[in-house]
Amino acid sequence: MAKRKRLIPDYSTVTLSGLEYYRTRIEDADGKRVALYARTPEELYDKEMEALEQVGHARFHRKSPTVAEYCEKWLLMQSVHVRQTTLTDYTSKVRRHIIKELGEMRMADVTLDDIQLALVPVSKKSASVYKSVVILYKSIFRAAKESHVIEVNPTLHLNAKGGGIPQEDRQALTDEQVEQLLDAIRDLPPYVFVMIGLYAGLRREEILALQWDSVYLDTDTPYLTVRRAWHTEHNRPVILTELKTKAAERNIPLPTCLAECLREAKETSDSDYVVANRDGGPLSYTQFKRLWQYIVTRTARPRVAKKLVDGKYVKYILYPQLGEKARNNGHCVYSLDFEVTPHQLRHTYITNLIHSSVDPKTVQYLAGHESSKITMDIYAKVKYNQPDQVVKAMDGAFAQWDAMWA
Q1: DSSP 224
Q2: Distance from C-alpha of 368 to C-alpha of 173, rounded to nearest angstrom
Q3: Distance separating alpha carbons of residues 237 and 233, to the nearest angstrom
Q4: What phi and psi values does residue 12 have, to the nearest 5 degrees?
């Protein structure tokens, strides 16, 4: 079959420095007319096609939205089919870790190198935060590619593996540590928060959103119901009635010690919230941090302190001793020889359920786990993390074999 001859336009000619050139004009990316020259029509044709391709590419990039513009559009699209709590989490991470780093760049100009550099600050966060930000990057740029906003997806080879700081597995508090903690903060603001965490297993956002209309103390079996979640926007508290998952909505029976604690708290409360600020409203993020400081300041662990030397504050390391009074607060005694986090209270509750031989399905319900895998992972670590428990399980499994060989 004969090769098809390409059609070469009829170009004008011009003489430059005594030599004849073929000439044509095209419009560049800025809309300006520029001239192209070549010694033959074929050479000029190739040069024209290459230039037009570059102009089209440049115009495409220039029309491409900024990362900030497209991210906001993507968040709006997500609002149609994700829960409000999920959207809040997406919005916070996208604005803090994506828009802040790359917001002014055009989507079509972003490269894998740009994204990896933007992830450097995120790598100083926990591994879970790092992974979720990487997933957001991949979701946003995949959507842009599918919508023909960009020609190439720069996140195709982006990997979350190994990024971020692995979090230590926090151990459940022992009975002695629980008693020590409660003695240290009795009659202090965080006491009710800690009791709910230890004996109802609520998450921090569930405790801070808990209202008295969800606490039933006058029934034969006192209980509370989880139906609200707390989060903050620009340090202001926002209470959501839609929880992150359906499993988070649950009724928790109250052990006697927690029921009595809540009865006493309710008698003196003039707020709708079980844990409230001075005005009776829900706590802001700063107010919660201040609440938790009552526990942190009573922990006998090395910390950075400041002292005035020659009119200037100088930092130094303070080594508190157990039983010693704080230097700047005579009412504060270093009475805890261990550190504790809000989530550790919940983990202690779940661990105690497992040690009490509560079946995994009930543990899953009371913990508000959407996936049974989460419950079973914890169950396996707690239940069989003791050699004597493993031996008993093995003895039972192989008893029939022992009988056969006896």
Answers
A1: E
A2: 20
A3: 7
A4: -80, 165
